[in-house]
Here is the input.
Amino acid sequence: MSTMTYADRQVDVDVDGFMTDPSQWNEEVATAIATEAGITELTDRHWLVVNFMRARYLESGSAPSIRTLGKASGVPIRELYELFPKGPAKLAAKIAGIPKPRGCI
Here is the structure.
């Protein structure tokens, strides 16, 4: 396991850069991860998805797939790709400070 520094805070990450301890997350860390990924501003729609991802992970122990994310979050899949262009489920999970989703679909 390694660490990364976001917003002057060290967080534990796996080999793909996903946080392994969601309790180390905060909104400043999320903003720093988003900036590193090329998202210069997290809008209310971004936060809706990020908070949905965190809540679903904390409730069930796994991140939702892109299909589930599109259906259950209230944000259509097309918009998810506009908000998180490098892969919505993976990028939203990374910004949300949760482990990498297992499946893509």
About this structure: The longest strand covers residues 2-6.
